[in-house]
Amino acid sequence: MLIDTQSDFAAGWRCAISRNGEHSMMIGTTLGLDTIRGKLKWIRRQFSQHALILLYHRIDDADCDPWQLSVTPEHFEQHLEVLRARLRVMPFCDLPEALRRGELRKGAAVITFDDGYADNLVTAKPLLAKYELPATVFVTTGAIASGQEFWWDELARVLLTPGTLPDTLCLIDDGSAHQWPLGQDSCYSMAQFEDHRHWRGWKSGPTLRHSAYRAIWEWMRSMDERRRNAVRGQLRHWGVGAQPRSPSRRPLTSEELMRLPERGLVDIGNHTLTHPQLSKLRLSEQQEEVLRSQRDLESLLARPVTIFTYPYGDFTPETMDVVRRAGITAAGTTTRALVRKNTDPLCLPRVHVPNIDGERFATFLQEHLL
Ligand SMILES: [Zn+2]
What are the phi and psi torsion angles at 258 (to 5°)? Predict the structure, then answer.
């Protein structure tokens, strides 16, 4: 999961753009094939000595997606068509060597997934195989071991899907009570859910439920695993009347994780043990998060795992030292930029991909190469 800057991703392609005084167009209009070809040709020129790392999370038809983590299978396949036709998709693990040798390939792009959702195996992998494109899945190993849905999905399911909650939500954290009044929004109908299903977490809440969701999300994000699990237990009590857990919205199992790299197209990387905000942790806790998940993965896969992504794109220079000492050779952030010749391999920028069709994806690539 990434941090709080997705609003720009969604807004970007809806804006008129003008670059170098010669290229101006309105994104979102119906574009002809020649226009797309022209844009793709322009994209290839811009890729010289650059690499663009794409960041996905889920490939699924999400009914509730406040952080825009899902791309539909249909759109993902269209993205792969564009990438396959026009760019050179390389594995994430090859980036450190390419940077060291100053040999980023012209038109380089990298496909990554964060968190370790089961749909990465069930839905994304067959499409990657169809187009013969490599990708890397960065896994939060604690979620695989527990089998629980990710905490942000559980929170969204309880608060943002139809059902009835108390008039005032009360959560106890380390003996202190925290309350969020819901008033008339304690009852949330299917019609209301349909009205607000496209709400995004970075926008103001249209109901008290959405405001509470955002506040509790921020609160839980800053917690350690022990406190968060205690709060999750209380959430489950509320969530009895909420929509049932989606069978597809779950982490990979250990067995599924081991199937991901079969046939060689999909690589596995480390995304910590519990998906914390690393910058909020003491040094020893950061080491524990990085090293324990690395050990878990290496034990399951029976080989070294030397690539990593920072949860929420959150890290400090101290975190980078922890990662370096763990033997990590490449680490991805959520900074929206291109990888360039002088980019630090432990600070590789990545661009989050929204749920857009292939035509808009071609434009999206162009926008992020400027
Ligand atoms: Zn994540």
Answer: -70, -25
Question: Domain check: are 31 and 128 in the same one?
Answer: yes
Distance 115 CA to ligand 1 centre (A): 5
- Ion ligand 1, residues whose Cβ is below 5 A away: 1, 114-115, 311
Its domain, for residue 119, covers 6-145+253-368
Q: Which residues, at least 6 apart from 356, have a Cβ–Cβ distance to it below 8 Å? A: 13, 75, 364
16 contacts 24 by C-beta, under 8 angstroms: yes
Tell which phi-psi region holds residue 262, choosing left (phi > 0), alpha (psi between -120 and 50) or beta: beta
DSSP 302: T
pLDDT surpasses 90 at 363: yes
328: domain CATH number is 3.20.20.370
Instruction: Please tell me whether residues 264 and 128 are part of one structural domain.
Output: yes
DSSP of 323-342, one letter per residue?
HHHTT--EEE----S-B-TT
What are the tens digits of pLDDT across the range 3-43?
444 433 333 222 222 333 333 333 334 456 777 777 766 66
Q: Of 149, 153, 143, 158, give the one whose Cα is nearest residue 235.
A: 158
Ligand 1 mean position, distance from CA 211 (Å)? 22
User: What pTM, to 2 d.p., does this model score?
Assistant: 0.85
Tell me, in angstroms, the distance from the centre of ligand 1 to residue 17's CA: 30
For CA atoms 50, 6, 246, 268, the dihedral sign is: positive
Three-state secondary-structure class, residue 270: strand
Task: State the Cα–Cα distance between residues 118 and 275, nearest whole angstrom.
Answer: 17
Looking up tokens 């997705």 gives 6
Q: Inform me whether the pLDDT recorded for 113 exceeds 70.
A: yes
Note the pLDDT tens digit of each residue in 186-195.
Answer: 999 999 999 9
Q: Are residues 314 and 293 in the same domain?
A: yes
Q: Ligand 1 centre from 334 Cα, in Å? A: 10
The secondary structure element, H or E, covering residue 100 is helix 95-100
